[in-house]
Amino acid sequence: MSGDAVRPDLEQVFRAGYPRVVAVAARVLGSRDEAEDVAQEVFLAFGRTTVPADEAPQWLSVAAAHTALNHLRSGRRRTAREQAVTDPDPVTPDVADDVVTREERRRVRAALSRLPRKQAVALVLRHSGLSYADVAAALDLSPGSVGTTVRRAESALRKELSTDAVRN
Amino acid sequence: MLFGTDRHPTEGTLRRLVDDPAGVADADRAHVADCPVCLAGVAAAQDDARAVATALTTDVTATDVSPDVDRAWARLRTSTAPAPAAAPRARRRRVRAPLAAAVGAAVVLGGAGVAAAADWLPVFRTEQVAPVQVRTADLVALPDLSAYGDLRVLSEPDVRTVGSAAAAEDAAGLDLPQVRALPGGVTGDPEYSVGDQVVAEFTFSAAKAATAAGAGAPPVPAGLDGSTFRLTAGPGVAQTWRGGASGAPALVVARVTAPTAFSDGVPFDTARDYLLSLPGLPADLAAQLRGFTADGTTLPLPVPADLATTSTTEVDGHSATVVATRDGSVTGVVWVADGVVTAVGGSLSEDEVLAVARDLR
Question: Is the pTM of this model over 0.90?
Fold first, then answer.
């Protein structure tokens, strides 16, 4: 083992897995910059583990979903986003569109953060392209129950979004 | 009641027909094709799935543009370069300050499985458990002790998996706590890991410290220059049930001989306070550390304040610290009794963790 403070295969795993980790986190956060911050956290954590390299893709996707959801719930983001919504950039040409888009994003992320954690992770992983078998393994679900979990998450998310829209 | 192909498939099966029909049994597909109720169910599932897919990709730029992997890798390398080492050999050169020495103990405590849950590793000291809250960034930015003297790791923990509880107990010379009743959702057999005692020696160098800290360094206390401190932690044993969230274990029960620090002259707390007063450590953290009892046996392990919260409780008459991630997904409790640290944690609620902790044999 080298003198570096990380596992020796980290660079290889990082280069292979980084785009996927960013994509998973971006689905949760709706922000590329924040997704890249999450990806850094995820790979830092991965570097301290002894997870076998062949299990890394699954571990990384799950960690990306959890870490991004943690960010959503921290409250910091919500404050920042609400600030952005109420205080749009005055030089942006399509201010109205921009505000609408940001508001939609805010509602999606807020709804996502209110889902039960297992549902939220299953939803994000499936929509990020993980197979039913991979999602089942990642969440310790039976393969047959992944569809049910995803279905309930989608149904709940839609309800949350429509309720939130009415409230707003 | 309907049977066989006459029975309506579950809503999960209908959902799977939307995006993975090949994964659905032929009999179910045949049923759905002729069942107006199920066809309506598939249509509703499809509608919801499409709406959610759109909602999750509201920000097109978030998912459509490939990230700059080279730039990201350079950033990660910057972050990992000064981090406490995961590997024993790396730790020889990179152990940081008393805080990082405690990280070594945590490796012994949790074994490889717990390293995956780096966010929740708890706090301990020999006589009483007490939390020190720092931000995550501080964990990788602690001053390098080797800049203030000579650090030698004399004995590595060699954390390893063994085949049975008896083998773990033999290797560590500690009784492994027995879990009488597993919490709901935790199943199967645990994995047993064991780690040997970690021993490190740090010899303080006034000249090195002056160079490292620059003009702002306070005067070195009398007798500190050349003093050697011996830090030990472990051995430890752990049993880990897999299947928790985010790579964290479902349940870990671990026991480790408490960390201690020995001095050949100058009290350890003198050295610690001096090190903590040097530039490089956040002032609030230094102040918290100084508040610890100066008995030379305190080795707190930081809890990332932005990720976890702590509270106190009692386990079997001993003061215990509960550490919980802010999203509530992972909780741990740790306490010290008779020079032995015991920790219980996992993807569980505080009630579940405390129930296990208070029922250990």
Answer: no
